[in-house]
């Protein structure tokens, strides 16, 4: 794992490529380059059959330089560090600061590759890659480049993994009011990306974040609790509290945050008193009672209301 710092002072951690994957990529590139070289040489040999030996030798040297040296340089420049072999192995050549390479970087790497790979059959490149802490050969050292892995197992970028079951609810009494938002963001980013990090780098980052969280909460880290699991459990506890607070805010009249028996009375007591609205069912029942005939009395004929509605007899 290599930690680079960009121009915005952001630490960028890249997983460097090691010797086996780089050697496989070089073999694929050399096989493709020699196939093209042989095809071009056969075509030129047939086209220059009438020339003398000196001209044929000059054309052969020029073909070798153009195909086996200029070809990889052009491919890396145009593809921004992704040759055929690196594309197959999921690798890419980048600058030391993580940016894409340019022509001068590819030129230095290609020129040194003639000595490291072609002239010495890759022995010098293998020794330099084994000695370097980031697996760089001499061409990378002089060009200021680095070969990194692009195919990294991606975790869920927007989902924080749940804590272990035995830690759920264990930090319910923890005071989280003193934890700044920046620390919460750093912890969340670590939890969502911890599957992509190198185990050693991830463990060191978890210990550092756990130490910062302990200093903000004032409660020491319990013995036997891994730092990563501790961070996941504390984030889960904070999310649980946010959910409870959201439910309590949605029902202000509830005493326990989940009941709704007195919520309507509390809402009705706020603000000016509104006039009572008569119940339509009570009005209809009263009209029906008046319209019902009384035993022993003369039926009265009432004029229909102005609305045209005649109550039922």
Q: Describe it for me?
A:
Helices cover 53% and strands 6% of the residues. The protein is mainly alpha-helical. Strand 1 and strand 2 form a beta hairpin. Helix 7 runs antiparallel to helix 8, helix 7 crosses helix 9 and helix 8 crosses helix 9. The radius of gyration is 39 Å and the shape is elongated. The N terminus and C terminus are likely disordered.
Tally the helices: what do you get?
11
Q: Biggest sheet: strands, sense, closure?
A: 2 strands, antiparallel
Q: What's the mean pLDDT score?
A: 76
Question: What oligomeric state do the depicted chains represent?
Answer: single chain
Radius of gyration from the CA trace? 39 Å
User: What would you call the structural class?
Assistant: mainly alpha
Determine the fraction of residues in helical runs and give it as a percent range: 40-55%
Count of individual beta strands: 4
The termini sit apart by 92 Å
- Flag low-confidence runs: 1-12, 254-284, 294-301, 303-311
Q: Please state the overall shape, judged from the principal axes of the Cα atoms.
A: elongated
